[in-house]
Design goal:
Strand content of chain A: under 5%
Number of helices of chain A: 17
CATH class of chain A: Mainly Alpha
Radius of gyration of chain A: 22 Å
CATH topology of chain A: Ammonium transporter fold
Oligomer: homotrimer
C-alpha cells in the first residue's frame, strides 16, 4: 500500500498487482464442475442451462456498475474522462480481486470455484469502492483511488462474511453490506482527506454544466431501470419476484417524492438536477435489505416515500452542514443516496424481521433467515445466537449487523484515508481538483474551430 | 383535477396523489399466489422460475420507457433536463397508477394481484402519456403534464379493456391501444392548447443543436434495439418468436427506407436528423398489431418500407401543414412516428385477419383470436359479435377497434386539453416554452470559465 | 456495384437493393417449423420457450451493434451524426442481407429457415462492415460505405462457411471470421483509398473534443459489458458459461493493462482517451476464438494482459508508422482493437488446440472440434483433413484458417477499394472529410444564442 508519489511508480505498482492476480488465478482458481464438459455417459444439457439462468440479471448489473456509476459521476463538467475512465479501471481491477477474496473465504479443497456466481458477486463487490469514490470524486489521484479500492474490497469481503455467514442477517439487496459499507468507508476517507479550514470553499471546477448534467442522467436512468436486478439477483424461490416488485415500487414512489420535495425546498421552487440524479435512486437502496420479504406493495411504496424525502432533505440541508462544519466534501452526496437510505433499510429490516412467522414464510424461511430454523445438521450450528432464533432476536441481529458494518467501514476508511494522506502517496493540490487535466490528455484547442 | 396555478400547490397535489396511491396499494393490492412462499410440502421451485421468464423482456421495456423516450426527447437544445426528468417523473407516477387502474378492471376476490405481469403492463401503460408528451413537448408545465397523464392512463385502461376484452381485437404490440391512443390523445390536447393565430410562429428556443441531437440518438437507438421486446412480451407460444422476427425485419426495412426517402425529399438531398431519430422507428409501430401473425418475412419488410416512407413524408409535408393550418404544434412529430404508423398497423391487421384460417393458426387460434373460436365454456360468450366469428368479421372488428380508439382518444384529449387550458392551471407564455429555466435550476455561468 | 456519382442516384440504388431484398424474402424465406403454431394435437409449449432462450443474449448483441459501434465512433467532434446514423443505416441494410446470404448457404428444400438463430447470425455479420467502417471513418461517402458493406457481407458469409464448415476450425467468438476479416478488409480498402503523398497530413476536422469523447465512452462501455454475450451466444453446453467467464476476465485484465501501459507510454504519462476507448476492449477480441475452451482463469487473464499491451503499443507506435509510411489512415485504429488482437486469438487457438484431449473435453469434443472425432455418419466425411484429426493437425488448421481469412479479406478489400476509387463513385475531397456537413443538415446557428 506504500506507493511512491510519482505517477510512473504508481502505475507500475498497479501492473504488479495485475500480475499477482494472474499468479493467484493460476494457483487457486478452477472452473466449477458444472462449467466443465459433462462426461459422455452422463451428458445433461439441462443442468448447464439452469446454471446460467441468472445471466440476464448479471448483464443488468454489469450495466449498472460500468455505465450507471460511470455516467452518474460525469456531472462534474471537467471531470468526465475521470468519471467514466476510473470507473472502468477500478471495476476491472476490483472484479478480479473480488473473485479471489470472496473465493478465499469459500474455498473447496484448497481451490476457488469459478462460475457465473463468482462474477455476479464480483460485480456487486465492485459497487462498494465505486460508492466510496463518489464521496471523494475529484479529490484524489487515480493511484490513491485504486489502492484504496484494493484494501476496501478485502475489508468488504470480510465484513460481508461476518454479517451474512456469522451473524446470519438477511441483506438480500446488500443495503447493509454494500451501500452502508461503501458510503461510510468513503465518508471516513473524505474526513481524513479533508481540506485545511482555510481551504474549505468549493473547488473552482466543482460543478455541473448543461451537457455534463445530461450525461449524468444516462447513469441515473440505467441505475433506475436495472436496480430490480441488483436487488433480486441473489434472492431464491419466490423471493426473487418479490424483490423485483418491491424494488420497482419503492423506486417509483421515491422518484415522485423526490421531484415534489425537490421543488418544495429548492430556491424559487425550481427542480434541482442533483436531487433528480440521485434521490430518485434512494428508493432502491432503502428497500434493498428487505426487498425479498413480505413487505406488501404498500410497504415498498412507503419505504420509497421515506427514502425520497430523507435523501432530498439530506442534499438540501445535511450535506452543506457536513461541508461547513466537518469539512467532509461528499462530492456526489453518497451519504444521501447510499448512506442514509441504507440506514433506513437496516431499520426496516429489523421491523420486518420482528414480525416474521414460519406461517408466512413457509418453505422459504430457511433460505431467508437460516438462524431462525431449528436445524438438524451440523453446519448451521456455527451461526451466532444459536438455532431457532425468534423474530425479536433476529431483529436485534439486524441492528447489530448494521452497527458492526458501520464500525468496520468507518474504521477501515479512517485507516485507508490516513495512509492515503500521510504516506508517500501524492495528494492533489486544491487547484488540481475536479478536473481531468492532471491525469489525462485533454483536447486543448477544442473550442477554437467550432 | 382542479389544480391551482402556483407551482407549490401543483406539486402538493401530486404528493397527495402519491399518498392516495399508498393507501390504495394498502387496501387493494396483494402479491399473486406464485409470488408468495410455497407451502413446505408442495415446494416447487420450477413454478417460480417459470413465472419470471419474461423478466429480461421487461427490463428491455424499462430501458425503452425511461432511457428511450427520455433521451429521444432531448433533441430540443434547451429542454434536456425536462425531457429526461419529466419522463422519469411521469413514468414513476403512471406505473403505480396503471397497476391500480388495470388491477381494478381485473380484480379477483376484491383484491388486485401483483406479479411481474402487473409491472410489465404498467410499463406499457407508461408509454401512452409519454407519447402524448411528445406532441406537447416544451409547451406545458410539469403540473399540467402529470395531471394529464393520470387522466389519460385511466382512460387508456378503459379503452384497452374495451378493445381487447369486449371487442376482442388482436393488438399484440399495442399499436392500436397504445400508439394510436397516445398519439391522437396528445394531438387533441395540442389542438386545445394551440397558440393564437398571431403567435403561430416557431418558438425561439425550439430546435436542436449538435449535442442535443446526439443525446436524442441514444433514445432512438435503444428504442430500436429493444422494440422486439415491446412487441413480443405479451405474445404466447410460437407467436413470441414471430413477433421478435417480424418486428426486427420491419424496423430494418423502415430504417433503410427512412434514410433513402429523407435524402430524396430534403433540402440539397441532405439527411435530416429528425427523420433518422424518428422514422426509423416507424417500422416497429406499424408492425405492432400484427407482429405475432403469420406475416412472413416479406410481409414484415413490406410494412417497414411503407411505414418508413409515410413517416418521412409526414415529417416533410404533413407536419408543417398541420402547424400552419391547424396550429397543432406536434413538437416531436408523434403523428409521424406513432399516429400514422399505428393506422397502418390497424389496416394491416384487418387485411391479415381477413385471411386467417384455422389450418394456419392451429393450436394458437384461440390465444390470438379468441372470438373466432367455437367456444364451449361460459367465459367466452361475453365477447361481442358472438363466438365463431369468421375472418371477415374479425377484420371488421379490427377496423372498429381502431375507430373506437381514435374516438375515445380524441374525445379524451379535447377534454383534458380544455381543462388544462381553461381552468386554473398555469399555462406557459410563448417565451417560456421549450426551455428548462422556468422549472429547473440551470447552471448560469456554464460557459464563462470553459 | 457501379453507382453513379450523384447523391440521388446512389440513394435510389440503395432503395432498389431494399426492394430486391423484399422480393428475395418473399421468394425464399419461411419461418422455421418451431416458429409456426403447433398442431392442436401435438401442442408443446416447452419447445417454443426453449427456442428463444438465447433472446437475452441476442438483445445484448443488438446493443453492441447499434449503440456500441455507433457511439464508439462518435469520438470525431464533427462526425457524430454520421457515426450514429450510418451505423444504423448500414446495420439495418446488412442484417437483411445477412439473413439471405447465410440462408442461401444453408438452404433446406430450396427455402431459407427464419428463426431467432437467423437474426443472431445477422447481427454478428453486421459487425463485420462496421469494423471496416472504423478504418475508413470520415473518408467515404455513405453510398460508398453501404455498397462496400453489401459486397463485404457476401464475402464474409463465404469465408465463414469455408472456415467453419469446410476447414472445421473453432472460432466461437468470431475473432478470426468476424474481427480479423472486418479489420483487414477495411485496412485494404483504406490502402486503396489512401491520399496522395502530398495530402498525407491529418484532416483538419479529424480529432475529438471533450463532449465527443464522452459520447464515445457510451459505446466503449456498452461493448465492454455485453462482450461476454457476443462471445458466448453460439457456444453450446457448458462452453457457454466458460465463454462468459473467460471473456469477462480477459476484458478485466486488458482494461487494467490498458490504463497502465497508456500512462507509461503517453506524453507526460497522461492517460489517453483513445486507448481507454479502444484497447480496453482488445481483451474481448483476443479471447474470442478460444473463449469456450478450457483456458482456465489464468489463461484468460494472460490473454487479456497481452492484448491490452499490444493494443496500446499499436496505437502509440504502429498506427503513426502506418499513416506516415503506407498512408493507411486507420481512423479508429481498428488494427489495434480488432486486427492484432484477432491474430493473438488465432495463435492462442492453435496453442490451445494443440493440447486438446478427449479426456478434457468429454461429451463436448464433437461440438467444439467436429473434425477431431472419429465419426460414424456420412455428414462429417466432407470435413477437410478427414476424420479423427489429432490435436496438432487441428492446431495447424487453426493457423491455416486465419491465413485464408486474411488472404480473402485483404483481396476483397483491395477489390472493393479499387471499385470505390476508380469507378463512378463520388469520392470525398480532403476538406470534406471527417465532417457531417456534406451529407447531413447540421444546425447552422447553434452557438449564437447559447
Amino acid at each position: 500500500m506504500h506507493t511512491p508519489g510519482s505517477k510512473v511508480s504508481g502505475y507500475i505498482v498497479l501492473m504488479i498487482v495485475q500480475i499477482i492476480f494472474l499468479v493467484l488465478f493460476w494457483l487457486f482458481v478452477r472452473y466449477e464442475k458444472a462449467v466443465l464438459p459433462a462426461p459422455i455417459a452422463a451428458e445433461d444439457a439441462g443442468s448447464a442451462k439452469e446454471h446460467v439462468s441468472k445471466y440476464p440479471q448479471f448483464q443488468d448489473i454489469q450495466v449498472m456498475i460500468f455505465i450507471g456509476f460511470g455516467f452518474l459521476m460525469t456531472f462534474l463538467r471537467k471531470y468526465g474522462y475521470s468519471a467514466t475512465g476510473y470507473t472502468l479501471f477500478m471495476a476491472a481491477l476490483v472484479v478480479q480481486w473480488a473473485v479471489l477474496m470472496k473465493g478465499f473465504l469459500h474455498m473447496d479443497g484448497g481451490k476457488i470455484s469459478l462460475s457465473l456466481e463468482s462474477i455476479i458477486d464480483a460485480d456487486i463487490a465492485a459497487a462498494v469502492p465505486l460508492i466510496s469514490m463518489g464521496a471523494l470524486l475529484g479529490r484524489t489521484t487515480p493511484i490513491q483511488l485504486l489502492c484504496m479500492s484494493i484494501f476496501e474490497v478485502a475489508l468488504f469481503a470480510g465484513n460481508e462474511y461476518l454479517a451474512l455467514n456469522i451473524l446470519s442477517i438477511c441483506d438480500c439487496g446488500g443495503s447493509i453490506t454494500v451501500h452502508a459499507f461503501g458510503a461510510y468507508f468513503g465518508l471516513a476517507v473524505a474526513l481524513m482527506l479533508r481540506p485545511a479550514s482555510d481551504q474549505n470553499d468549493a473547488g473552482k471546477h466543482e460543478g455541473a454544466n448543461y451537457v455534463s448534467d445530461l450525461f449524468a442522467m444516462i447513469g441515473t436512468t440505467f441505475l433506475w431501470v436495472y436496480w430490480p436486478s441488483f436487488n433480486s439477483v441473489l434472492a431464491e424461490g419466490s423471493g426473487g419476484e418479490r424483490a423485483i416488485l418491491n424494488t420497482f415500487l419503492s423506486l417509483a414512489a421515491a422518484t415522485v417524492t423526490t421531484f415534489v420535495v425537490s421543488a418544495l425546498v429548492s430556491h424559487e421552487n425550481k427542480l434541482d438536477m442533483v436531487h433528480v440524479q440521485n434521490s430518485t435512486l434512494a428508493g432502491g437502496v432503502a428497500v434493498g435489505t428487505v426487498c425479498n420479504l413480505l413487505l406488501g406493495a404498500h410497504g415498498a411504496v412507503l419505504i420509497g416515500i421515506i427514502a425520497g424525502t430523507v435523501s432530498v432533505l439530506g442534499y438540501r440541508y445535511l450535506t452543506p452542514w457536513l461541508t461547513s462544519n466537518l469539512r467532509i466534501h461528499d462530492t456526489c452526496g453518497v451519504h444521501n443516496l447510499h448512506g442514509m437510505p441504507a440506514l433506513i433499510s437496516a431499520i426496516a429490516s429489523a421491523i420486518v424481521a420482528s414480525m416474521v412467522t414460519a406461517d408466512d414464510y413457509q418453505s422459504e424461511l430457511q433460505d431467508i433467515f437460516p438462524a431462525m430454523v431449528h436445524g438438524n445438521n451440523g453446519t448451521v450450528t456455527k451461526i451466532m445466537g444459536g438455532l431457532g432464533r425468534n423474530a425479536s432476536t433476529q431483529a436485534g441481529y439486524q441492528l447489530f449487523g448494521i452497527a458492526v458494518t458501520l464500525l468496520i467501514a468507518i474504521g477501515g476508511g479512517i485507516l485507508a484515508g490516513g495512509v492515503m494522506k500521510y504516506t508517500s502517496f501524492r495528494n492533489l493540490e486544491k487547484d488540481e481538483q475536479h478536473q481531468d487535466e492532471q491525469y489525462w490528455e485533454v483536447p486543448a484547442v477544442e473550442n477554437k474551430e467550432e
